[in-house]
Design brief:
The protein is an alpha/beta fold. The chain has helices at 21-31, 40-53, 64-74, 91-98, 118-128, 148-157, 216-225, 240-243, 268-278, 281-299, 328-331, 335-344, 360-365, 372-380, 392-407; strands at 57-61, 82-86, 103-107, 132-138, 161-165, 173-177, 180-183, 192-196, 209-213, 230-231, 256-257, 306-308, 322-326, 381-384. It is built from 15 helices and 14 strands. Strand 2 (82-86), helix 4 and strand 3 (103-107) form a beta-alpha-beta unit.
């Protein structure tokens, strides 16, 4: 590819949705229909998602955060329970544990990938012992750690639940053993898996999320919990004298709240967009992989000051983000300077993420965590633009801009 002039070029953000006429028509069809919410499109999206990720059940919800909270509810986390969460992740992963009054054990991560290794998991488990009830494992940037299967098997032996935070990883596949490859979300070695469909994710519902599982009990309970805890099935009514006529017919208006739930439903509007986007998932994943290869080829031997993060399996990963690691001290520029210089060249960037134990809430409520790997990763990481709408010329603009900033 030839070098592209930066003058008069539009700004390239770090992430952006792809919305086409098919998506718009799908949403428009719902707006013209009888159902805006609680209608048939929600069911259709759930069936399509479960089929795509090879799980038995899928539950659409209002956000990835809602999905994590519902997982905490269905696992019945309580004060005194402890949940292992990697230190490098978005706030919602740990917050969903705290919503229940349970405690977070922050695990350290690999300095190069930001992923929790088996050794990090074991150290976190040792600090929590028998109070550890679950591991919320994060597929950061869309990658599945080479240690994930090992962690899941050990957790199962210890009767610890595994929840996959796959907010970054829709479309990623990974090896279960030597001969078996499964999509993230199949729950082949986990209890529950969550997805996020925010606009910068691989597919979007505007705002939205989903949970997948192979456990029918969880599935039924999740459907109730996302809808205020309401029960409309006459077979489950407990107040017979209020629910039924003298002849035993259920009153058509009647429902019961069997337990405390939330309004975490996804609408037909959101699910129409999600269903349309899901049809393009394979293309989105393939295009993201192409862009990652272009970046990797350009940056692999550019300079010792900058390198791409190591890849666990390039061909199986649906990359949500493209992080690079920069030695800012050797560069003699801080991260703010680099971000501003790239911004002046029309390139947007972001940092994913500040270690959770550094946030004021967790810093004030937990003793200092021993997370040297997370601190090293955070000190170097910077996410470059990555989304399917990028043209090869856009990718080259980013590469040229990074080269200019690194060399000046």
């Amino acid at each position: 590819m030839k070098k592209v002039a930066l003058k008069d070029q539009s700004f390239i953000p770090y992430g952006q949705q792809w919305i086409d006429e098919e998506d718009i028509q799908a949403v428009n069809n719902v707006l013209k229909s009888a159902f805006l919410t609680c209608g048939p499109i929600v069911d259709q999206f759930e069936v399509a998602l479960a089929k795509k990720v090879e799980s038995q059940f899928a539950i659409a919800v209002s956000s990835g955060t809602a999905a994590l909270h519902l997982c905490s509810l269905v696992l019945d986390l309580k004060p005194g329970d402890k949940v292992i969460v990697p230190s490098i992740t978005f706030l919602a992963t740990a917050n969903a544990v705290k919503y229940m009054g349970a405690d977070v054990i922050f695990a350290d991560v690999d300095t190069e990938t930001g992923l929790m290794s088996y050794e990090h998991y074991l150290r976190a488990y040792e600090s929590g012992g028998n109070d550890v009830k679950a591991v919320y494992y994060v597929h950061l940037n869309g990658q599945v750690s080479d240690d994930f299967v090992k962690i899941a098997k050990d957790a199962k032996q210890k009767n610890i639940f595994i929840v996959e935070d796959a907010a970054h990883a829709i479309g990623t596949k990974h090896s279960i053993d030597d001969d078996v490859v499964k999509p993230v979300g199949s729950c082949a070695i986990s209890d529950l898996c969550i997805f996020s469909f925010h606009p910068v994710k691989t597919i979007t519902m505007g705002e939205g999320g989903a949970i997948t599982t192979n456990n029918e009990h969880y599935y039924e309970k999740l459907k109730t919990l996302r809808h205020h805890g309401m029960v409309r099935d006459p077979a489950l009514f407990t107040l017979k004298e209020l629910a039924f006529t003298h002849e035993g017919q259920p009153y058509p208006w009647y429902y019961e709240m069997s337990e405390m739930g939330f309004n975490y439903r996804a609408t037909d509007i959101h699910c129409a967009l999600g269903l349309s986007q899901l049809k393009k998932l394979d293309y989105f994943v393939a295009r993201r992989q192409e862009i990652v290869r272009l970046y990797d080829d350009a940056f692999e031997s550019l300079t010792s000051l900058l390198r791409p993060i190591p890849k666990t399996d390039l061909n199986l990963t649906a990359f949500h983000l493209y992080p690079i690691l920069i030695d800012f001290s050797a560069l003699k520029k801080n991260r703010y300077q680099v971000i501003q210089e790239l911004k002046n060249l029309g390139i947007g960037t972001q940092v994913h993420y500040m270690p959770l134990p550094l946030h004021p809430f967790y810093k004030e409520n937990y003793r200092t965590s021993n997370i040297p790997g997370a601190m090293i990763y955070y000190s170097k990481v910077l996410s470059l633009p990555l989304y399917p709408k990028m043209r090869n010329d856009d990718v080259l603009r980013v590469i040229d801009a990074v080269r200019d900033v690194i060399r000046t």
